[in-house]
Here is the input.
Amino acid sequence: MVQEFYQGLAQRVRGMAETADPFTRRRLLDLAKRYDSKGGTPPSKVSERPLPVSRTPPPASIFSGPGET
Here is the structure.
């Protein structure tokens, strides 16, 4: 029953995304993806891989406060 609820929400959100501007459309489709994962439906597209974590430390200038050089 909960699965059907989230699947219905995902369907409604996708319908709204069809008429939305590009920025809102992207956000609505992301929301629909989250609803699909809660409802147990596999996502329709291949998910993107996250960016790798940088192993290099940031430059020291970021850590200096105002007035420090």
About this structure: The longest helix spans residues 22-39. Residues 17 and 25 are 5 Å apart (CA to CA). The radius of gyration is 20 Å.
